[in-house]
TrEMBL record:
Region annotation Disordered: where it falls in the sequence: 1-21, 214-237
UniProt superkingdom: Bacteria
Presence of the UniProt keyword Transcription in the record: yes
The UniProt record lists the keyword Transcription regulation: yes
Protein name: Helix-turn-helix domain-containing protein
Residues in HTH araC/xylS-type domain copies: 239-337
Length: 342
């Protein structure tokens, strides 16, 4: 698992029309989320050449129909001066998130005005989505048989509506050459910084990150931001046993002990457990131990060795290996990002 997925060999390449700045069309429609709209303007729009400080991108907001007032998902509306014709001359088209509404989220079908606008994209144009903007691309079939990501909360819905999309719920963004998708919300910042780094090198990307007061590169993926519910001990099946295990993570039980607690045979327990959680008992236990370690890293100053013992890993080396495998970050990196300051 990595925090981002880079393009296949030979899939790079920066679309650009000769004689002008790289033109970025940011396509919004009613229900857009203001934060995501601002990301390409703030990141791409402030990228400058290092010698003459000339803008490197021309970022233009457009909407799916003629110039009009476009309502966001909050009490903010934006008067957009450009209609979808801008897309026809764009080198990159960015589709930010839209609030969960409309056919893209209910039936996987793109609304007619959005479909018409996206249909104006020229062959070879780079296409980017931020957060749930990926549902618009998937609804057009643009992500079929390609790796992609979106906000972790919506990955199951993406799989249900678009089974051909190779969705990755763990990474911050996926770069598949001419098609790039980001995870939820602020992951759009990571993706746009990646675009600057890919197009113009790390020095320019670092300069944009410094002026935006964000890290030029974030460790890990969005798996580290997911919170999972605690099982209800009163629930049916294996729920009571799962709750029991969570109370004694420093002494993780064997599979036979788990089955005995649930008053089932090992075979029945294993089958029921997978039916209820989607994981084997061993996979679930490791994930829960990692989640417990995350909580200690966020809320306490305990040494990594003590956290490893409390969560049943035994050694700091074992904890580091499991966190690296699950979250693509070390305990130290995770604590640096999430440590609660009193």
């Amino acid at each position: 698992m990595t925090g981002h997925r880079l393009p296949r060999s030979g899939a790079r390449g920066q679309p650009r029309s000769a004689g002008r700045r790289h033109r970025v069309a940011v396509l919004i429609t009613d229900g857009f989320i203001p934060f995501e709209l601002g990301i390409p303007h703030r990141i791409l729009g402030t990228a400058r050449t290092q010698d003459s400080h000339e803008p490197l991108y021309e970022v233009i907001t457009c909407t799916t129909r003629e110039a009009r007032l476009v309502r966001s998902d909050s009490d903010v509306s934006v008067l957009v001066d450009h209609g979808p014709d801008v897309i026809e001359s764009a080198d990159t088209v960015v589709v930010p998130a839209v609030a969960e509404r409309g056919p893209a989220f209910t039936s996987g079908v793109v609304a007619p005005d959005m479909a018409s606008a996206l249909g104006r994209i020229r062959p070879g144009t780079r296409i980017v989505s931020i957060c749930t903007g990926a549902f618009q691309l998937a609804g057009m079939g643009l992500l079929d048989d390609r790796p992609a990501t979106t906000h972790w909360h919506y990955t199951d819905l993406m799989r249900e509506l678009h089974p051909r999309v190779r969705i990755d719920p763990d990474v911050l963004y996926v770069d598949d050459g001419d098609m790039l998708t980001s995870a939820g919300v602020a992951a759009g910042v990571d993706l746009c910084l990646h675009l600057v780094r890919r197009d113009h090198g790390p020095a320019v990307a670092r300069d944009v990150a410094r002026r935006t007061v964000v890290p030029p590169h974030r460790d890990g993926g969005q798996a580290q931001y997911i919170q999972r519910p605690v099982p209800d001990a009163r629930g049916p099946g294996t729920a009571a046993t799962r709750a029991w295990i969570l109370r004694r993570l420093d002494r993780p039980p064997t599979l036979a002990e788990m089955a005995a607690h649930a008053a089932m045979s090992v075979r029945t327990f294993t089958r029921r457990f997978r039916e209820e959680t989607g994981e084997s008992p061993g996979q679930w236990l490791i994930r829960e131990r990692v989640d417990a370690a995350r909580q200690y890293l966020e809320d306490t100053d305990l040494a990594v060795e003590r956290i490893a013992a409390r969560c049943g890993f035994g050694t700091a080396q074992s904890l580091r290996a499991h966190m690296q495998a699950a979250l693509d970050v070390t305990p130290t990196q995770y604590r640096r990002t999430f440590r609660t300051v009193a």
